[in-house]
B12-binding domain-containing radical SAM protein (Inconstantimicrobium mannanitabidum), 555 residues
Amino acid sequence: MKILLTAINSKYIHSNLAVRYLKAYTKDLEAECKIREFTINDRVERILEEIISEKADVVAFSCYIWNMEYVRKLAALIKLVDADIEILYGGPEVSYDSKMVLDENPGEYVIVGEGEETFREFVQYKLKNKSLNDILGLTYRYGDEVVQNPVRPALDMNTLIFPYEADEELGEKIVYYEASRGCPFSCKYCLSSTDHGVRFLEVERVKRELMYFIEKKVRLVKFVDRTFNCKHDYSMSIWKFLMEQDTKTTFHFELSADLLKDDEIELLNKAPKNRFQFEVGVQTTNEEVLKNIQRYVTFNKLKEKVFGIQKGNNIKQHLDLIAGLPGEDVESFKKSFNDVHSLRPEEIQLGFLKLLKGSSMREEAERWGMSYSPYAPYEILKSNKVSYEEMIMLKKVEEMVDRYYNSGKFNSILGFLEPKFKSAFDFYYELSKFYDQSGYFDRSIGNVEYYKVIHDFAAEKLNEEEQIVLDELIKYDYLCFNKKRWLPPFLDRCLEKEEEKEIKEILRGKEPYNKFHIEKFKIDVNRYLQDNFISKKDFYLIFNEENDEKAEFIK
């Protein structure tokens, strides 16, 4: 008997934790459970071919809001090719209305909630060692009826089996891990609000398992814990342990920043650079809107903690906002964005409210005049405070923030341009309008064009002197992240060949100038980056072509 555990991830670099848990929980049983991972960027026809070629008795799908429409198509196609293949669904997208899932889709089984013990008993049933109606947490077809068994109680986290195998090749994948399940909060838009309490793995076990990733030299481990720092001694112990290891692995945590205590911040400020990165859910800085979603934290308190982490200059922070929350209009959202932007986190994630099945927010949609897509991921279309047209405007702003701010490749440019607008939001809004009017949203543009867009956009806003300064900063940012020996035509390479030759003669044979590029600027870039002062003078920078190192050259 063969079961194909099928994961359709949102990107190739992602991995699926759920199917690994299921396989690990049943590896002592006499059944073949095989994992196959695909992405939503793969053609449906290709995935279908791969699934059918496995000749499995059961195909199990891990279902989320980002892949559910894909899974529906695949399930229908599988049944058309071979009606004898049984289909099992599991995951958060099918747990809330499992009976409807089977009423509306081909397939025989749905696992509701946590799947490890239910899947194990399902495999035992297939091996003739278990009765179907005794399996808690399972919904299944029985003739023309759909039967929904009672829900399964929450499992003891410490009965989980470590889901990764010794010989598994993780390469450059983002690897997921969880030390706890549940959340102490009850935010109305989140499915975690339906759980009560938080369950933890034994802390010494967590440390042992994290050594697996360190020894494998995994690039990034993302903890999927909803609020990793909700138990002070627990998070402190794990952070301290990871800080002591000799590793280049980065560990990503979702935090509630307002819960951070002074001793935690003091510890984190001592962490090796890039050992940790944090994702902090702000959602909005409007306290009335926060009450509407049952979130109780002031922006001032959050700001204090974010600044506390920033003092260490060693941890990247990713702050989240959600557009479309109940009671928040565009002006309020703009303020929230500007508040968060003022903290200068490494990334600002501008997301949009999703009205998930089973969430309190979906039940209150009518109260707030919310219309949302009936298709996964159930994203809001409009509310009584934000029109559809305004929502589209915010999406275009979000794209500009992601392309320019979050990439980290335009920092000097943004530092010069943003203050010339009424607010940071206004800058990205005006840039998005320029993008739209120029047709850039309708096509894919190359890396060089991102810089050209900024150049052209600013030409309408700046005087001649300001444009010269901006172009020198564009040149600097471009050379930091792109080929050093070529500049786009709209930028001025003002270093004459004879002068370049003279400087190279001076540097020849001197360490570390083996492979380098010299560039001349019309402003003192270092002075600008250090204290935001524009000094117009000839300035020379040496770019190492093998790494990110730069050095000033003084003639």
Notes: The CA atoms of residues 191 and 359 lie 6 Å apart. Residues 164-402 form a domain with the pyruvate-formate lyase- activating enzyme fold (CATH 3.80.30.20). DSSP finds 20 helices and 20 strands in the chain.
